[in-house]
Backbone:
């Protein structure tokens, strides 16, 4: 009986030892399989590629991280993925990648996947303590983690559609502001340019408050000198039948004419922006003069902002006054035809027109931004470009205009926009 008891006890002890060895070996193999599975899942979700490094990095050197486009990742996921990749200074193999719709837990790091190769010989029987010691002493391979993410592309800006309305439209010679609405064009436009404002030949400032027709001869070098139409701009009272909203301009209102119609058009079409276009074919004569020096540029730009952005129109016939046209225009369009020559007969030109135009645009941008800081708005600045490459090269520093203008208008088939009334660009 004693022999039987001792034999049974020996069997129990032997079973316990064999069970311990089985558990140790199973844990080791399971750790390997778990690491490989985690890596596979991570590759499927976050496109993390883990490969063995050729050489160990120096102490304190972060693991190489490459961020490049990968189709299908969201912008939020990209930000999270970039934020989660940190330099691995002491133990690169323990770096965890998290964020882009998946995560690699620290305990499932790729380094643990290579503790025991699948083709290695079965481990010799050992105690649990020896198995744990063997795992701790196993070499940890160095890894390079390459994270490939793609932020979602920014929404493409909507197509810019620009319409011109002529100052002389108030006389019925071309389309009026009301025509833009009744024809359905206003609903298709993003911007409307009011053409044109002139330059005062004496003070070299933005000309406003003057009603004087053009000289009749188109070949007259002084055809546009001093010309303007304040009556059409803001003095003429529109009747109810002529007005865009069917409401006549009161006789004592400080703002009437085309400017008030533009204001009503913007109210009917929220998001539509109006710009005053300065220059054009007949009013570009003195651009070279106002752009020549810093003092001339500052004086000219301030006068334009005073009249058309701040809305301080000269008083005449009970119309106008400080702030009377505020809110009509959202920016300035520069239509210099053309810097360096080739415009209307009699235009002033200079060898530095190309460079001075850029300086003039920079002055407009600076003063518009300064005003915008005070009012909490962004004021637009645009420029009209010729279609011919030779004329662009002669008068426009396109690369330097980046950051100054919001967009450009390009001449279409050599036609002058205002001669056709309101047209789509």
Residues:
């Amino acid at each position: 009986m004693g022999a039987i008891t001792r034999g049974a006890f020996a069997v129990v002890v032997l079973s316990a030892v064999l069970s311990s060895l089985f558990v140790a070996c199973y844990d080791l193999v399971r750790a390997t399989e778990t690491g490989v599975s985690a890596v596979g899942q991570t590759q499927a979700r976050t496109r993390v590629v883990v490969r063995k490094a050729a050489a160990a990095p120096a102490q304190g050197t972060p693991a190489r991280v490459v961020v490049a486009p990968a189709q299908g990742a969201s912008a939020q996921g990209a930000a999270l993925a970039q934020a989660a990749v940190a330099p691995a200074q002491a133990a690169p193999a323990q770096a965890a990648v998290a964020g882009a719709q998946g995560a690699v837990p620290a305990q499932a790091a790729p380094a643990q996947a290579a503790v025991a190769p699948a083709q290695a010989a079965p481990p010799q029987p050992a105690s649990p303590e020896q198995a744990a010691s063997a795992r701790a002493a196993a070499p940890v391979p160095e890894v390079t983690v390459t994270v490939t993410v793609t932020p979602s592309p920014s929404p493409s800006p909507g197509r810019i559609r620009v319409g011109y309305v002529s100052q002389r439209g108030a006389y019925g010679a071309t389309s009026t502001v009301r025509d833009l609405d009744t024809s359905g064009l206003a609903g298709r436009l993003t911007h409307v340019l009011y053409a044109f404002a002139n330059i005062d030949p004496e003070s070299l400032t933005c000309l406003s408050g003057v009603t004087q027709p053009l000289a009749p001869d188109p070949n007259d070098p002084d055809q546009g000198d001093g010309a303007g139409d304040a009556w059409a701009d803001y003095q003429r009272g529109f009747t109810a039948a002529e007005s865009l909203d069917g409401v006549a301009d009161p006789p004592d209102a400080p703002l009437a004419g085309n400017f008030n119609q533009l204001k009503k058009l913007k109210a009917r079409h929220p998001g539509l922006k109006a710009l005053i276009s300065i220059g054009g074919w007949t009013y570009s004569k003195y651009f070279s003069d106002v752009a020549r020096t810093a003092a001339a540029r500052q004086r000219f730009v301030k006068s334009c902002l005073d009249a058309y952005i701040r809305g301080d129109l000269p008083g005449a016939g009970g119309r106008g006054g400080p702030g009377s046209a505020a809110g009509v225009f959202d920016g300035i369009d520069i239509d210099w035809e053309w810097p360096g020559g080739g415009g209307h007969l009699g235009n002033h030109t200079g060898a530095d027109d190309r460079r001075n135009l850029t300086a003039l645009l920079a002055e407009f941008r600076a003063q518009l931004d300064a005003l915008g800081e005070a009012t909490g708005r962004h004021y637009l600045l645009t420029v009209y470009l010729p279609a011919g490459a030779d004329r662009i090269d002669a008068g426009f520093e396109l690369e330097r205009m980046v950051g100054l203008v919001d967009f450009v208008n390009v001449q279409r088939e050599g036609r002058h926009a205002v001669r056709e009334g309101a047209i789509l660009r």
Summary: Residues 335 and 384 are 5 Å apart (CA to CA). Residues 162-420 form a domain with the TIM Barrel fold (CATH 3.20.20.80). Confidence is low (pLDDT under 50) at residues 21-121, 141-156, 414-425. The chain is about 35% helix and 15% strand.
